[in-house]
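Methods — Computational structure assignment.
A single polypeptide chain was analysed. Its primary sequence is given first, followed by the predicted tertiary structure written as structure tokens.
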Amino acid sequence: MNWHNGKEWNAFWRRSIRQAEEYRALGMTEEQIRELYRFDLEVFRSDRRFYRHTETLESYYDDESWEETLNRLFPGAILVDPEEPEEEDWLEAVEDPALRRWLGELSPGARVLLTMLAFRDYTQAEAAKALHCSPQNVSQAVARLRAKWPK
């Protein structure tokens, strides 16, 4: 996104003069017109800040998504939580009451990990990256879950 301050300021100024004339024709006082101008000026400044601090992400590859572009331009800087799993979908499908009770007693993090590994086909390394932890932490969590798994 580009912002050419001189061009934008001139357009704003012309628009403000035209609006002031319209407001006078409608019978507004000079104080009311000044207040509207101050408001419009703050909006103009806000827009300028937005456009000066926002960059267009150009994809150099036709088949690249915006997420892939971000990850390519800023590797490791994008920290996005994994999608919220829809636990109810698979938890309600469990027929064994003991297993359902055990799954219900797990922490939300353990259920997220189980969902990622069992239903979303994540590897342990991919799950670790998505959860922003080390692969060893995921491996240990899986080992703890296996140890506590109801027989």
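Note: The chain has a mean pLDDT of 80.
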